[in-house]
């Protein structure tokens, strides 16, 4: 990095798989770091010692580990299954967690707090802040009805309809809130 005159290094602290690259109390550390738990923090320290700022990487919605460990946290498709469960044969590569689930949201905030206490960084990059599909989980349904007074549509509304636009507006608003 120094030879390449890198000014900022984005360093993974957690990935789409959900494993952490540091000793975590609320998540699961990648087993490659057993016995060398401080390796990534050392990389960050070396960056700083060499005038390179550090941006930590965190995957927000894509988290296969927590998707698999916590079925209630899953982003659900219209057929009642998650994208990972919905595949025929081999499951989808990544599990998606819904930011409207208060337990998942609390978990994400706890992990971010944990990372910021462990690493010195100049910034964080929160990847995947979007809805890959309409989420039909109980939390999205309840929040939609509470905020609009309208029942959550059972079927994805047709393009261009008022209901589709309202649904999209709420999902954008919720992601911004998250």
Choose one word for the global shape.
Answer: elongated
Structural class: alpha/beta
Oligomer category: single chain
Overall mean pLDDT stands at: 95
Contiguous helical run count? 5
Strand order of the largest sheet: 1-2-3
The amount of helix comes to 25-40%
* Main β-sheet description: 3 strands, parallel
Proportion of residues in extended strands: 5-15%
Distance between the termini: 33 Å
N to C succession of SSEs: EHEHHEHH
Low-confidence stretches: none
Estimated radius of gyration? 19 Å
* Number of E strands: 3
Report on the structure:
- The chain has five helices and three strands; from the N terminus they run βαβααβαα.
- The chain has 178 residues and is α/β, with parallel strands linked by helices.
- β1 (8-12), α1 (39-49) and β2 (53-59) form a beta-alpha-beta unit.
- Helices cover 34% and strands 10% of the residues.
- The mean pLDDT is 95.
- Strands 1-2-3 form a three-stranded parallel β-sheet.
